[in-house]
Amino acid sequence: TRAYNFCAGPAALPEAVLRRAQAELLDWRGIGLSVMEMSHRSDEFVGVASKAEQDLRDLLAIPANYKVLFLQGGASQQFAQIPLNLLPEGGTADYIDTGIWSKKAIEEARRYGTVNVAASAKSCDYFRIPRQEEWTLSPDAAYVHYTPNETIGGLEYDWIPDTGDVPLVADMSSTILSRPLDVSRFGLIYAGAQKNIGPSGLVVVIVREDLLGRARSSCPTMLDYKVAADNGSMYNTPPTLGWYLAGLIFEWLKEQGGLEAMGQVNRRKQQKLYEFIDASSLYSNPIATADRSWMNIPFVLADAGLDKAFLAGASARQLLNLQGHRSVGGMRASLYNAVSEAAVDALIAYMAEFEKENG
Ligand code: PLP
Description:
The protein is of the alpha/beta class. It has helices at residues 15-24, 43-60, 74-86, 100-109, 225-230, 240-255, 258-279, 307-316, 341-358, and strands spanning 4-5, 66-71, 92-97, 114-120, 144-146, 149-150, 155-156, 168-171, 188-192, 203-208, 283-284, 296-301, 319-320, 331-334. The mean pLDDT is 97.
């Protein structure tokens, strides 16, 4: 039997998708080859790739004036690729600091120009997201970058910033596809695949067409969004297996009823875990209620001396990967799309039992 996997990433994938991939592994739809063994330029793979793109467009209702790119290098490479494409030499970009991932994006962008940290959650120990009234945006920013969901800290915006004509750039790695999204509010969205999209090794970029063709001359060809867009993300050999698996996930999401339906399930999943944590005297989560992540729920035990026993008991019950990120400790339950409501119920039942015995 498969365990319940609360890993922050690479994360749980839907069992139905894995079974389908397994069934197609040796012989993809009767052609006698696996997807990994076919040319990326073959009719078969081009069909797989364009269906995946279309399904993602359908799920997110992506407007026609946006390109969808399937790239490599993970979300971390985007930390450099964004300024190389969107920040002119000598230009300024605004960044919002809400935790470890936004800080990584800030540090990398500083290599390419002036970064104005327009707001930071540092003053409140990263327990609360600064409201837009508290931001100091620069008048001449090339773009505004933010991290809608901080995977490690467990903070998530329940609102989309309004940056007027200045393009809004979002690292959606750990929240994309968790619920419906108004893509038209963004200049560029990027997401590492290994949470709600598929296996690692793939990053999806959704970019408004007017932002293409702005790369600085020193930008490597491979990192120029326009080159990727003009070549259908096949300027070089793309990560074909990851692209195919992402396509299976998009089909699965459609079968579940799309993002409205996923959003309802995800709302319930996080609500019940936070409610349980808030009512308990053993577990706690420090994040301001309005800024709590739906996907990544960190919590600590009142006595850290119990951590080891908690994790051992969880593993014995097939509740895996609950330890917090190595930089913060404690616990973290990631509740991505492939983590079922039954998994959350099993986790809560175990937490209650552990509290009864140790609280
Ligand atoms: N941004 C966020 C919000 C993340 O959660 C992660 C990874 O977990 C990254 C960026 C880095 O992604 P990658 O490992 O694909 O570079």
